[in-house]
Amino acid sequence: MGFVIGLFFGFVAWFVLRYILTSFYTVDQNERAVKTVFGRAERVGTVRTADLPIGETLSEENKQRYNYPQVRMIPPGGPYFKWPWEKIYKVSIATQTINMAQDPEDPRANSGGTLLDAVTKDQLNTGLTGQIRYRVAENNLYAYLFGVKRPILHVMGYFVSVLRERIAGFEAPQPDESRGEEMSAVIGVSINDLRKNLRDLNEHMEHECASSAARYGIILDASLITGIDPPAEVESALAAINTAHNQVSSDISLAQASADQKIVQSKRAVEIQTLNAQAEVEPLVALCDQLTTLQKSGPNVLQAYLRNVRLGLYSHAQQIVREVK
Predict the structure, then answer these.
(1) What does the alpha-carbon distance between residue 209 and residue 217 come to, in Å, rounded to a whole number?
(2) SS3 of 185, please?
(3) At a CB cut-off of 8 Å and minimum separation 6, what does 63 contact?
(4) Rounded distance between C-alpha atoms, residue 187 and residue 66, angstroms
(5) Cα–Cα distance measured from residue 10 to residue 82, given in angstroms and rounded to the nearest whole number
(6) CA dihedral defined by 100, 104, 106, 111, rounded to 10 degrees?
(7) Contact 163/78 with Cβ under 8 angstroms?
(8) Cα–Cα distance, 35 to 5 (Å, whole number)
(9) pLDDT tens across 117-171, in order?
(10) Are 198 and 225 in contact (CB under 8 A)?
(11) How many CB atoms lie within 10 A of CB 122?
């Protein structure tokens, strides 16, 4: 009898230590938690991913495939209590950074996770370097915890496939001649196009990967593609092309500056000559107006005016030649 009682109290003590005392837990500030009861996550009504704003990033086909239920999120704090048949899943919502060339399945891939290979539209093999900033979507924890086994693996695969597709078909925007943009001699060379439009490429990747929050429960904060490195032989050829283009651009700029200077000088010369002509014409116009006014004063006024002018000229002349009738 004593053995049975001891066994009973031993079981009770083990149960308390194993399931009661260890049933208290806390959630850190940068964490969120989800509770499951007998393996089923606690739901929030009938709300699903397609009903949320992030569901708008999915196509109609994908809305059926990635339509996850919404689960009750446990906020930071505690201590909280759970029963033995309940389980707590904690996730960090802090923003994390990963090399875009890193392969979570094979660390040796992509040159040891340092360089991502891609093929351009003109069949050039190029290496891409950069980083991806991501964080767990708090409003889609079910997708992150239970939707897929390794969410970051799916996100990286999706990102790389979209990026390679974009690199393969990338075309630089054509210059707008109406706005004074010049046609570059190296437009059409894919490597140069990509290097000059890294910002557009990053913005395109952010837009295309906006659905990752609804698909996998991971938000891509930013994609930072920082380098595009072609093979060595292509790099040397590009350097020669760019050098020649820079020299031609420099010569064109100098010629244009010289032409602009000559145009300005010509305009200035025309202005000066115009002012000189106006200065010569102005006294004649004033004299014409004066004579017109005198003529209106009487019939003999002009003869008197001409006589006075002659007398003034005679006073300054040394010799006078007159016609004799």
Answers:
(1) 12
(2) coil
(3) 49, 50, 55
(4) 41
(5) 22
(6) 20
(7) no
(8) 36
(9) 888 887 778 888 888 889 999 889 999 999 888 888 888 888 888 888 888 887 7
(10) yes
(11) 10
Please tell me the pTM assigned to this model: 0.62
> Scanning the structure block, which residue is given the tokens 């490195």?
229
Buried b (16+ CB within 10 A) or exposed e, 109-118: ebeebebbeb
Q: What tens digit of pLDDT does each residue of 91-108 get? A: 999 999 988 888 888 888
136: helix, strand or coil: strand
Return the structure tokens found at 22.
């260890």
**Residue 228 to residues 159, 242, 303: CA-CA distances in angstroms?**
17, 16, 93
Quote the tokens at residue 210.
Answer: 């906006």
> Which amino acid, residue 285?
V
**Maximum pairwise Cα distance, the chain:** 174
**Calpha distance 10→45 (Å, rounded):** 42
**Residue 225, token pair as written in the block:** 């593609």
18 alpha-carbon distance from chain centroid: 54
105 strand-pairing partners? none
Q: Is there a contact between 190 and 228 (Cβ–Cβ < 8 Å)?
A: no
The residue type at 146: F
